[in-house]
Amino acid sequence: MVDVRIARRGVRDERVLNAMRTVPRERFVSEAMAEFAYEDSPLPIEEGQTISQPYIVAAMIEAAEIAPGDRVLEVGAGSGYAAAVIGQIAGEVYAIERHDALGRMAQERFEALGYKNITLRVGDGTRGWPDAGPFDAILVAAGGPEVPQALKAQLAVDGRLVIPVGEYGDQKLCKVTRCSEDRYSEESLGAVTFVPLIGEQGWSEDGRRSASNHVPGTSRKQTLPEMISDAAENLPAFDDPAFVRLFDRFADRRVVLLGEASHGTSEFYQARAAITRHLIEQHGFTIVAVEADWPDAATVDHYVRHRPAQKAAEAPFQRFPTWMWRNTDIAALIEWMRSRNEAVSEKDARAGFYGLDIYNMSGSIAAVLGYLDRVDPEAAKVARERYGCLTPWQKDPATYGRATLSRGYAECEEAVIEQCRELLAKRLDYAREDGDDFLDAAQNARLVASAERYYRIMYYGGAESWNLRDTHMFETLENLLEAKGPNAKAIVWAHNSHIGDARHTDMGVTRDELNIGQLCREKFGRDAALIGFGTHTGTVAAATDWDGDMEVKRVLPSRRDSYERLCHDSGKERFLLDLSPGKHEALRRRLSEPRLERFIGVIYRPDTELWSHYSQAVLPEQFDAYVWFDETQAVTPLGPEHHRGMPETYPFGE
Ligand code: SAM
Questions:
Q1: Hey, which residues are catalytic here?
Q2: Which of 249, 255, 276, 172 is nearest to 583 (CA)?
């Protein structure tokens, strides 16, 4: 954790990193939380408080420039963890905690672990500890309305005080240095989120500013939710033409990427469908590329573009999570695309529906074989042999990865790559028959090659399999754009985690993961628009475990320290927030400090929401715009979850 989560985010002081390595964080949390002790996130402790995020503890100690022999005051000892880390470097640590129970537990931990240079007392730390000062450094682990005067007074000359300051949801980490007896300098170290500092020179219990530290005559800065409210453009109903007109600003882009904060929220689908219809109808977009498997989406594409029906082995989107594509919102879009295409006489101008994802390996194998059977039966025989290598694993390709791992070599790799190469080499011959059919077959052959590799490297964990999948999705998009010509324009539907630029989230910063959004920005620059979606609460269609049943779950209200809560606190129900550079610069700047953002996929686990679903991001860098629906509803599935006599041949009602 120290090397990956802390050093890589910029903490350089070896003394701090070593101290972090030495103190066992799991001893400072309850047994139930111990398994999360080495996650870089705050964790709940008793009395409704938190043990701070390890990165923040390290960053604060580094900022306070604690050196051996220093006398240090920590206000807000909580679990005692930060005091213990400080104690590894400093000479003496004085720690104050206002909750008696927390103070007692922290004291017991210090004794059990043999930390002898920490003295702890229970009381109001905003008044400091005058008898023990002056201090070389003071760290405050809770956020006050301003810097307590008492703490400044107890700093030694050259002493450093590090404290979060500001309204909840809009705190900055502040460093005060005492330059001389009566001179202090102050600098801001960036946005943070801490529990409130409650005391005589902090907040009062009811959340108001305590009187004794207030400097009269100071004017009030606009809060972030107020700034969001000012910048937000209200979204009318989906069928109001004014709704889609708000997105005209992105219509000149080559690629418009539309995200979602969960895979099971109806408003995200409805909004994306409305925007998609408008971009197709008014702005010449002809590619709708979604986070679904290529062969499944191809069946839909045949339907919407009135191409001859394919003989598929199974109806599309039969595999988990079926509700993602088999739902009423998607069904409506597909029907719309079909009837709209009917009126477009020029076939190339018809909008198609494509899948970017790689999971349906067996569907792709069947599609390549079916294609070759039609156009080149001799080549089909060879392909059958090559793909035969994967036959034993087709039902559950993940087992192929496990098998190659134990065998130590990738048995089918060469065969599937060769098959793909050969098919592409015959492009000129094959494509003469039908360009669309060739594109379909080529993409299926590419999918099999990517999937073979994907299922193998999945077993090593880490970023590689994610990166392979997103690179495949991006290359599929590129292939589509290339196949449709230089003026082709695409709309992409994928989760926020795929379309929000990964370089500005924990994915890129700490996990070396990239995604389609990042790759699009790198290739298309301003010609790609990355639009994220978010919600505060409501219901969502999701499973509890992988391959589990779909459930309609309640989405917990967003966390107080998240971007979502800032949007909720704006008081607006549905809006578009334009985050493009040059627009709302003051807001962009203030939103630009990393904060938590919620990611719900096909799995939603409210019980462990913080660790399972929240991650750090810098919203205005991640997206060009953010679409907000304060309260949202689960999608309505068409599949067996809600059997309503829907024919199994969906999406064909015939
Ligand atoms: N450093 C702690 C750790 O490593 O676990 C972090 C604890 S938490 C973020 C902040 C703590 O500050 C809470 O335990 C809270 O009770 C305490 N606190 C808030 N106001 C305080 C005050 N005026 N004096 C002392 N402690 C205070």
A1: 52
A2: 249
Reported pTM:
0.70
3-state SS, residue 307: coil
Does the Cβ of 128 fall within 6 Å of ligand 1?
no
CA distance linking residue 576 with residue 250, whole number of Å: 12
CA-nearest of 145, 111, 165 to 213 is: 145
Domain count, the chain: 2
Nearest to 139 by CA among 102, 90, 101: 90
What is the rounded CA–CA span in Å between residue 547 and residue 321? 7
In a domain, 456, yes or no: yes
**Nearest-CA neighbor of 421 among 360, 374, 368?**
368
Nearest in space to 411 (alpha carbons), one of 400, 425, 422, 419: 400
Answer yes or no: is 410 within a domain.
Answer: yes
pLDDT score for 489: 98
Q: Is residue 98 part of a domain?
A: yes
Q: Are residues 474 and 589 in the same domain?
A: yes
pLDDT tens-digit series, residues 40-73: 778 888 888 888 888 999 999 999 999 999 999 9
Closest residue CA from atom 20 of ligand 1: 197
Q: 143 by DSSP, 3-state: which?
A: strand
Q: Which of 25, 75, 120, 154 to mutate to test the pocket of ligand 1 (most atoms within 8 A of CB)?
A: 75
pLDDT at 310: 72
First to last CA, the chain: 56
Q: How far is CA 15 from CA 1, 12, 588, in A?
A: 16, 9, 35
Residue 140 Cβ inside 6 Å of ligand 1? The answer reads no
CA of 591 to the centre of ligand 1 (A): 26
For residue 145 and ligand 1, the question of a CB distance below 6 A is answered with no
Report pLDDT digits (tens) over 384-430.
Answer: 999 998 988 887 887 888 888 777 767 899 999 999 999 999 988 88
pLDDT tens-digit series, residues 540-550: 999 999 889 99
Query: What 3-state DSSP class applies to 209?
Result: strand
Domain finish residue from 171, 201, 221: 221
Paired strand residues for 173: 164, 190
Q: What is the reported pLDDT for 213?
A: 54
pLDDT tops 50 at residue 346: yes
Is the Cβ–Cβ distance between 168 and 143 less than 8 Å? yes
On the CB side of 493, how many CA atoms lie within 13 Å of its CA? 27
Confirm if 608 and 514 have CB atoms less than 8 A apart: no
**Cross-strand pairs, 174:** 163, 188
Q: Tell me, yes or no, whether 649 lies in a domain.
A: no
Among residues 167, 191, 221, the one where a domain terminates is 221
In the predicted model, what is the mean pLDDT of the chain?
A: 90
- Domain extent, residue 498, equals 228-642
pLDDT higher than 80, residue 345: yes
Cβ density class 214-248: b for 16+ within 10 Å, e for less = eeeeeeeeebbbebbbebbeebeeeeeeebbebbe
Question: 81 in ligand 1 pocket by Cβ < 6 Å?
Answer: yes
The answer to whether the CB of 571 falls within 8 A of the CB of 344 is: no
Same-domain status, 560 and 620? yes
